[in-house]
Amino acid sequence: MLCAAAIVLGVQDHLESTSSIAGNKANNSVVAAATEEPSTSATSSSSGGSNDCGSNDCGSRDDVRISSNAETSCSSSHSSSGPSATAAVSDAAMAQDLVPPSGLQALYPPSERSQIQESWDMLMRWSKAFSRRQHNAVSPIEAAQKVVVFGGGSFGTAMGTALALKKSSLDVVLLLRDLGLCQHINEQQCNTKYLPGFQLPSNVRATTNAAEAIAGAAYAVHAVPVQHSRTFLSSIKDVLPKDVPIVCVSKGLEVGTGCMMSEVISSALGRRQPAVFLSGPSFAKEVMQGRPTGVVAACKDAALAREVQELFASPCMRVNTSTDVTGVEICGALKNVLAIAAGIVEGLELGHNALAALIAQGCAEIRWLSQKVGAKPATISGLSGLGDIMLTCYGDLSRNRSVGVRLGRGEKLHIILASSSQVAEGVATAGVVVGLARKYRVSLPVLTAVAQVLDNNLTPAEAVAEIMSLPQIEEH
User: Fold this and answer.
1) Alpha helices in 82-153 (DSSP H)
2) Which residues of the chain have pLDDT under 50?
3) Shortest CA distance to 153 belongs to which of 447, 387, 399, 465?
4) Which of 147, 193, 383, 420 is least surrounded by CB atoms within 10 angstroms?
5) Where are the alpha helices (DSSP H) in 148-301?
6) CB atoms within 10 A of CB 383
7) Which helix (H) or strand (E) holds 431?
């Protein structure tokens, strides 16, 4: 659950301009029960719902009571009755007015329930006020008539479907190189290769003709694997208008150059193309199922990031914005390598302790390198950083984790890769990450061990043994 106090700090100005906060919805006031000194009491704030207890301990529920009378009468009764008198009626008696509609037993005492409700109402008022101010006359999805998706893999198809469902008249075109898959999509309305079993909206179609796919498109979603992106972009640079924004969902580092996708795009097209980088914990199948998903749209142009945010935002998808393109990209690349390590631990059946320790160490290594290349701490701990790490390391749908699991069980890498139609970007990225770490003089034991295993220099068991034998050091 969101921390209401943290939210209040960020939106207090918005809240104060919308409505005042009721001090006590049930017309009750919080007072302290009699203690050693009869005159000592604590009342709840009528504006913020928090207790001003001075030097008294407000942590004990036994010290807090709810009174149905006004504060003045409560204080008077409290001071005249002496230490042994009860300052207010019990929580159980007053809770009758605050019993949940279902009739179930309330978890919190009325004083806390009142504060929780007020904090929630505060958040809802801010949300409504913010939405009114942010409302545009014409949203990006309303203005767009066509969107092209580069690549027909699972995630590109899922993101194209998400847009198609927002607007039934939107022409969503998947640009593929596989003629057979193209025919299946158009004839069966299903991506039979990457998302079998999922029916695509009627306004999603496929083609192998780049000029036809791109013509008239307001946005281009780039979902081509990183290692093939340079060749693909170079082939379509003459038909892609210079002002069409690219929404890149590909994650990884280019082998040979170490470039991130932001660098690959500009280099392959030979110009500065407007581009936004969409990343975060998002399995394609769950996007297709309409399950709640959160991602980040990163662009140095904050206005363009907000435009893409509004383009994809829906009741099923939250889209945060960021200007930290480097942070979002580097985290998206490094987490794939860590996911392979997590899979190896799972495949070796080393247990939950080992998995938690490994992921914690991997997170630290990602933080060390990410900060060296310029990532912001907030990005590393956010959706595109920690959020994506958790998903790929623990989620059964993770391609990179699946590779690691099979390696841990003794399968050979070439057999694993040959048996899958999906691309596990972490396999190619691992070696690039080690080179990047050497460039910035950062030691990455876990991520380097993954590269050693993939390159057949260590078995998974040997890699774990070597990591566990490293010197015991101070955590940093």
Assistant:
1) 91-94, 110-134, 140-143
2) 1-89, 93-95
3) 399
4) 420
5) 154-166, 179-188, 210-214, 226-236, 261-269, 284-288
6) 23
7) helix 425-439
Residue that the structure tokens 């690691």 belong to: 404
Nearest-angstrom CA–CA distance, 297 and 318: 10
Report which secondary-structure segment, H or E, holds 433: helix 425-439
Residue 152 structure tokens? 């027909």
DSSP secondary structure code for residue 317 in this structure: E
What are 209's two structure tokens? Answer: 């003709």
In which residue are the tokens 């970007």 written? 425
For 354, counting Cβ atoms within 10 Å of its Cβ (0-12 exposed, 13-18 middle, 19+ buried), the class is middle
Please tell me the pTM assigned to this model: 0.78
Is residue 146 annotated as part of the catalytic site, yes or no? Answer: no
Q: Which of 146, 166, 335, 376 is catalytic?
A: 335
Q: Phi first, then psi: give them for residue 207, nearest 5 degrees.
A: -155, 160
Alpha carbon distances (Å) from 321 to 135, 269, 300: 16, 25, 10
What is the per-residue DSSP string for 4-64?
Answer: HHHHHHHHHHHHHHH-PPPS-TTS-EEEEPP-SSTT----B-TTT--B--TTS----GGGE
